[in-house]
Amino acid sequence: MKKTMLTGVRPSGNLTLGNYLGAIKNFVDKQEQFNSYIFLADLHAITSYIEPQKLKTAVQNSIAMYLACGVNPEVTTIFKQSDVLEHGTLGFIMTFQTKMGELSRMTQFKSKSSQQSKEGVDTGLFVYPTLMVADILLYNTAIVPVGKDQQQHVELTRDLAERFNKRYGDTFEMPDVYVAPIGNKILNLQNPLEKMNKSDNGDNKGTIFLLDDIALAKKKIMSAQTDSFNKVHFDEENQPGISNLMSILSKITDETFESIEKRFENKGYGEFKKEVAEVVANLLTDIQTKYHKYNNEEVLNEILKKGAEKASIVARETLQRATKALGLN
Ligand code: AMP
Predict the structure, then answer these.
(1) Which atom of ligand 1 is nearest the CA belonging to 147?
(2) Which of 111, 204, 295, 329 could be joined to 64 by an S-S link, Cβ 3.0–4.6 Å?
(3) What is the phi/psi pair of residue 35, to 5°?
(4) Which atom of ligand 1 is nearest to the CA of 148?
(5) Strand partners, 38
């Protein structure tokens, strides 16, 4: 029997090149080897305020985007998190297995909450990792392909699964995280010390969205921040901008860093950036053509309906196992 692979993305805006290279591409490349599930983490999207209409649109666009990125609904179960009610219930249960200290140590919480006063921090930002724990455990997941920023959450999942299994008897499968060696943290093009994010402080110059106008995406790459070494060389510490562009190129084309360094040995950054821009433009053109083809509400709703039915069967079984172990039924 195939093992289960699961991943999810928040439909809180347009998906980025970071989402694609860090999570979706790894999932797509492996989807046939596993019993595969991909979900739209719409409950995670409401941990902070999002306009309802914006959320609705983002959900539909994100499923079309999954398909455009190569997720095959014949092979993979695609569903919306809020369609499977067990996520909320198990999330609630797993919150009660967790210490305040564990959640306070989550780097995402630490970095986001440090920008606001404690009074104003959304509790969603604090407790959402336990919902993620439930997302993973419900499907007896063996492998979770995510970007580096999510690694800590899968580790929390393992800790809580182990704690629950010890206290209440063997209930949950232990998941492993899969963080690909290349492209696991695509950086902001204008500030290569920060991750490329969906929200990019307003001007979006540092983030490539998969739906960006092609000329604009090229322009973003051409104006990416680099350094004064003038050497195409992979060195994340001293040349984060160039290393980031190398990761993007290598992850899309499968060319090794050594080979890239060799080809651009005596060439300037301009020529290198031009090639990266071209490769990204081709990728985006391909994704966008498919995206427009798949963005049909009726077809997408049908995919989500089927996906939710299939996912619910497994989720229900797992939740029943957990509530039985707890003495609730
Ligand atoms: P999110 O957009 O936060 O819901 O993230 C969805 C998935 O994309 C997660 O697996 C993240 O780890 C991954 N991801 C998001 N941003 C990046 C990035 N800049 N580089 C690599 N992976 C990313």
Answers:
(1) 12
(2) 295
(3) -85, 100
(4) 12
(5) 7, 78
Separation of CA 16 and ligand 1 centre (Å): 8
Note whether 315 and 287 are same-domain residues: no
212 and 261, same domain (yes or no)? yes
Pocket of ligand 1 (CB under 6 A): 9-10, 18-19, 22-23, 146-147, 149-150, 184-186, 195-196, 198
Q: Write out the catalytic residue numbers.
A: 112, 195, 198
Q: Whose CA is nearest to atom 12 of ligand 1?
A: 147
pLDDT digit string (tens) for the chain, length 329 residues: 899 999 999 987 789 999 999 999 999 999 999 999 999 999 999 988 899 999 999 999 999 999 999 999 999 999 999 999 999 999 999 999 999 999 999 998 888 787 777 778 889 999 999 999 999 999 999 999 999 999 999 999 999 999 999 999 999 999 999 999 999 999 999 999 999 998 766 689 999 999 999 999 999 999 999 999 999 999 999 999 999 999 999 999 999 999 999 999 999 999 999 999 999 999 999 999 999 999 999 999 999 999 999 999 999 999 999 999 999 98
Report the C-alpha gap between 123 and 162 in whole angstroms: 25
Q: Are residues 129 and 204 in the same domain?
A: no
Report CA(146)–ligand 1 centroid distance (Å): 7
The residues near 142 (Cβ < 8 Å, ≥ 6 apart) are 3, 4, 5, 34, 173, 175, 176
Residues 279 and 301 in one domain: no
> What is the token pair recorded at 174?
């232990």
Q: How many domains does the chain have?
A: 2
Q: Is the CB of residue 205 less than 8 Å from the CB of residue 190?
A: yes
Expressed as residue numbers, the domain containing 257 is 200-291
**pTM of the predicted model as reported, rounded to 2 decimal places:** 0.93
Tell me whether residue 193 is in a domain.
no
CA of 25 to the centre of ligand 1 (A): 11
Residues 150 and 234 in one domain: no
Instruction: Identify the CATH number of the domain in which residue 273 sits.
Output: 1.10.240.10
Q: Are 102 and 156 in contact (CB under 8 A)?
A: yes
- Ligand 1 centre distance from Cα of residue 18 (Å): 6
Of all protein residues, the one whose alpha carbon is nearest to atom 11 of ligand 1 is 147
> Hey, whose CA ends up nearest to atom 10 of ligand 1?
146
